[in-house]
Amino acid sequence: MRIKKVINNNILCVIDEKGSEMIVTGRGLGFGRKVAQFVDPAQVEKVYRMEGKAEQRKLRELVEQIPLEHLRLTEEMIGMIKASIPQPLNESLLITLADHVSFAIQRKEQGIEFENPLAGSILCYYPTEYQLGQRCLELVKENLGVTLHPDEASFIALHIVNAQLNTKMSEMYQITQLIDGVIGVVEGFYREGSSFDRQSLNFHRFVVHLRYFAQRLFQDKLMEDSPAQSDASFRALIAQSCPRHYQCAQEVGQYIQTAWNKTLSQEELIYLTIHLKRVAGDLEEPVS
Question: I need a labelling partner for 251 at 20 to 30 A (CA). Which of 61, 81, 106, 171 fits?
Fold first, then answer.
């Protein structure tokens, strides 16, 4: 490993034999060292590597700005998160989560705390990720003695979901707001005043569908209608056999058009109809 940049006495940016950039850490690893010198692997305690060049640069810039203990703590958090979530996570989670956690700790020290207006919705729609966020707050307290605002668990949850869906954080807020709006439309359609059982498996499945639906919507990747006659016949069959659920799907489509200026294809409406048929039975009062 050849030194590309000395970040501080304990952190170096290096290039390996394949030309890939890495961040390596170790006590006194950078002391008195210069660019282009080689590094003794025996002195390296931790290696941080990113596949994408953009992520490599972001990681290099991040370690120049935050304490090393915050990066190490975030790495511990991600290990805990990966042990609980089977889906692959975007490698940038290390960067975004470390940046967020470090900034939250700095704000706490300055007496500045943020509340998350979507905290309740995040707890409802992403319960596993929210619980992991709470565990991350516990790790911060255990390791650094800092008690962060409880709403930080919901912010961390969004970072985790973002890493699963490979979206931007701004999209995650939009996705959560859209899910909120769609569920409001659906609950109002089937039985005014009643609500879904937020703990049911069917509700969880519905929210997962809405997550990916919203992701497609905001990335302009909505499913298009297939011109094949068999597909058209299938869509017509679903619409005719599930008229009430199809009508609800159309109302959701109208909400999407009004609130987000997006038009749903028949394919998306039919897919939504199928999910509505499953979840509608979980309302507190039976659908007439």
Answer: 171
Residue 51: band (very low, low, confident or very high) from pLDDT cuts 50, 70, 90: confident
State yes or no: pLDDT of 129 exceeds 90.
yes
Taking the C-alpha atoms of residue 230 and residue 219, their distance in angstroms, rounded to an integer, is 28
pLDDT digits (tens, 9 = 90+) for 155-176: 999 999 999 988 888 889 999 9
Tell which CATH architecture fits domain 182-282: Orthogonal Bundle (1.10)
Which CATH class for the 2-52 domain?
mainly beta
Provide the 10 A C-beta neighbour count for residue 43.
14
Residue 230 pLDDT: 64
Q: Which residue has the tokens 């979840």?
A: 279
pLDDT at 128: 95
Domain ranges for the chain, please list them: 2-52, 68-166, 182-282
Which pLDDT belongs to residue 288? 40
2-52 against 182-282: fold identical: no
In degrees and rounded to multiples of 5, residue 20 shows phi and psi of: -85, 140
Is residue 222 classed as helix, strand or coil in its secondary structure?
Answer: coil
DSSP for 113-142 reads ----TTHHHHHHH-HHHHHHHHHHHHHHHH
- The domain defined by 68-166 folds into PTS-regulatory domain, PRD (1.10.1790)
